[in-house]
Amino acid sequence: MKKEDVLNLMSAMEPDLIEQADVSAPARRPLPGGLRGGLIAACLCLALLGTAFAAANPEAVAALVERLSVQIFSSQTDPGYSVTGGSMTKYPLSAFSPALNAASEGRDGLAVVMLDFDTWEEVQAFLGRDIPCVWPQDWDSPFIVYLFHTGLDRLWGVDIWSTHTTDVVLSSIEVQIRTENWQRDSASAQLRNTEGAFTLLESYPMANGSTAEIIQYTGTDQHPHANCEGFFMRDGILYNVTTFATVSTADSAHSRLRAVLDSFP
Asked: What's this model's pTM, rounded to 2 decimal places?
């Protein structure tokens, strides 16, 4: 137990109990005036520097708060990865649009409601303007929105998914938004595969100030496909961007992934 914990415990005890136990806080030798003043000045300087950094670099501070950690499973029989960390924001149901709440309430006993949209503007209107979800501006593919419910008819999650094809690789984006009914706190994603290998390529600083953790999957000779996945947090929302390719075009998938990540506003 730390000495701070002992002192806190003592402060919560009745005075007569402390007297009976003959317990007292250890005496501290006073610091010389010059040293004490120097330490106070140093602490003030650090506090001011931290405040100035936070004021001048709010996106950098947010990136530190919302950073994710990655663990690669290197077992040959069960390779894979897990992505954890980052506090998910539990948005109140009142923050979502009346249309989304109506779709949830009229689900006829279904645990998952799936809805199709042609444009990001339609998805944004369906989510509600109070949900700060973002999407690359040059993405012109259709969207699927999933509404997830518990057995108690409560909406706990909203996911958005879409794919986009270029001349080189296929890209997909999945977004996880959580409501006030969600029972957990931290973001998490996991994938296990009995073939191939996973590698943590880099922590990529995106153009919008977020940091994406990039993982690469490389298939075997029998299954020569590959992909790169980037995970990042923004406003308590988890984003997963994937670019698919073959083993021979894995570098192109990595370059394409970086381009997609940098296209987020």
From this structure: 0.73
Rounded alpha-carbon distances, angstroms, from residue 167 to 45, 148, 170, 209, 217: 53, 34, 8, 28, 21
Question: Which structure tokens are listed for 35?
Answer: 């040293």
For strands 170-179 and 90-91, give the pairing. parallel
Give me the residue label for tokens 């339609």: 122
Nearest CA among 197, 207, 215 for reference residue 254 = 215
Question: Nearest Cα to 190, choosing from 177, 178, 180, 176?
Answer: 176
Angle at 248 between CA 247 and CA 253, to 5 degrees: 75
Q: How confident is the model at residue 211 (pLDDT cuts 50, 70, 90)?
A: very high
Across 53-57, 76-80, 119-123, 240-244, least confident range: 53-57
**pLDDT score of 192 more than 90:** no
Encode 61-86: b = buried (16+ Cβ within 10 Å), e = exposed. ebbeebebebeeeeeeeebbbebeeb
Query: Contact 183/154 with Cβ under 8 angstroms?
Result: no
- Both tokens of 123, joined, read 């998805």
Tokens of 109: 């006993």
The amino acid present at 166, given as its one-letter code, is T
Closest CA to 162 of 152, 177, 172: 172
